[in-house]
Write a structure and sequence with these properties.
Elements: E1 5-13, E2 32-33, E3 35-36, H1 49-52, H2 57-73, E4 80-84, H3 90-102, H4 111-114, H5 120-129, E5 134-138, H6 144-157, E6 163-170, H7 174-182, E7 191-192, E8 206-207, E9 209-216, E10 225-235, H8 241-251, E11 261-264, H9 274-280, E12 289-291, H10 293-296, H11 303-316, E13 334-341, E14 344-352
Parallel strand pairs: 3-8, 4-5, 4-6, 11-12, 11-13
Antiparallel strand pairs: 1-9, 1-10, 2-7, 6-9, 10-14, 13-14
Helix pairs in contact: 2-5
């Protein structure tokens, strides 16, 4: 018999003040920009200053969010660490290559090379905890976080682990932003939270963030919700989207009418928000709807922010006005997350109150 998978804690560093678990979007950070940096916590409270100076941004963000999740779950260690990232520590990679060129391949310091690999975050967390268990990093573009979730879910359901630290992290890298703006993937003109969806322009807002969660086979006082299902689709046509959502719900033994809230990844890209519109105006027309990328921005592991948001919504039984897409309301006991990026890498995640 498969075991249930519980979300026992959350930790988040994002473009909003999410690093404090005692609040829930009480204070919204406004912007008018084409890219969003995270609201930095006091890193000195989590990392010795001497060590922080040598750390890449993604590692520092992940150290804070992972420690927050572990503390809330009341754990000093876990059975496994699984991290998803689209870009890894790309900034250190770019700087190391620049050092090679600028120094004529001589007198190179190893720090940037050591921190330039995609699995640096998972490795650094494991070293800090002294965790010698399963340690894996998924680099699957816009479904990197969902891949980590799926791995953790399978391990817990099959009794291979009891407590797993799962996370998603991506940092803002200038070279990546500039190159993607040139090809129209990110907006060239600044937008605000209120004007993002009505901007009617190509591209989205580039951002960064780190989100970690402790998944467990045991429910406890800190538990947020139960993870009922995760599915990933590399490609999915607009015509087949609704039927695929219905198939996912059937596989999860969940009726369409049982969905109390659907959280979608609308990002203001006029070329691809039609996927969300088809669900808004179709099978979820009479379902409460929410969105999140006007708060978090777009990055490969942005679904981690949606997972954090949905977990907090279920635990607090409140849907902040800032994320509402329509005026319908129901007690949010069953929440479905749907995300895609530029028409590819679709994902569905189902959470339920327990």
């Amino acid at each position: 018999m498969k075991k249930s998978v519980y979300i026992n804690s959350v930790g988040s560093v994002s473009a909003q003040k999410t690093y404090d678990n005692s609040t829930f979007l009480d204070e919204i950070v406004p912007y008018e920009a084409t890219e969003l940096k995270v609201v930095d916590p006091d890193y000195k409270a989590y990392i010795p200053p001497a060590a922080a100076r040598r750390m890449a941004k993604g590692i520092k963000m992940s150290t804070v969010s992972s420690q927050t999740a572990l503390k809330e779950a009341g754990l000093e260690n876990v059975d496994a660490i699984i991290v998803g990232t689209g870009l890894g520590c790309l900034d250190d990679s770019a700087k190391f290559v620049s050092d090679i060129i600028n120094n004529d391949e001589q007198f190179l310091t190893p720090t940037r090379f050591i921190q330039s690999s995609h699995n640096t975050v998972a490795g650094q967390i494991a070293l800090g905890l002294g965790c010698k268990g399963y340690n894996f990093t998924y680099v699957n573009s816009a479904v990197s976080f969902e891949s980590s979730l799926l791995d953790a879910q399978l391990q817990i359901e099959n009794s291979e682990a009891n407590n797993i630290l799962v996370g998603g992290v991506d940092e803002l890298v200038d070279h990546h932003v500039q190159s993607h703006q040139l090809i129209g993937h990110f907006k060239n003109e600044p937008v605000t939270q209120k004007t993002l969806l009505s901007s009617n322009t190509e591209g989205s807002i580039m951002a960064e963030g780190s989100h970690f969660f402790v998944l467990s086979n045991e429910k406890q006082a800190s538990t947020y919700a139960e993870l009922k299902g995760v599915e990933i689709y590399n490609s999915l046509s607009l015509e087949n989207l609704s039927s695929q959502v219905q198939s996912f719900l059937d596989h999860s033994d969940t009726e369409l009418e049982a969905i109390d809230l659907v959280v979608m990844g609308n990002n203001g890209d006029s070329n691809f928000d039609g996927y969300y519109d088809s669900l808004n105006q179709g099978i979820f027309k009479y379902t409460p709807q929410a969105y999140f990328k006007h708060l978090s921005g777009e990055y490969d592991t942005a679904t981690g922010f949606a997972f954090w948001l949905s977990s907090k919504i279920i635990k607090t039984q409140t849907v902040p006005d800032i994320v509402k897409l329509n005026s319908l309301e129901k007690p949010p006991k069953t929440v479905l997350i749907y995300n895609q990026y530029r028409g590819q890498n679709h994902s569905l995640v189902l959470l339920k109150k327990c």
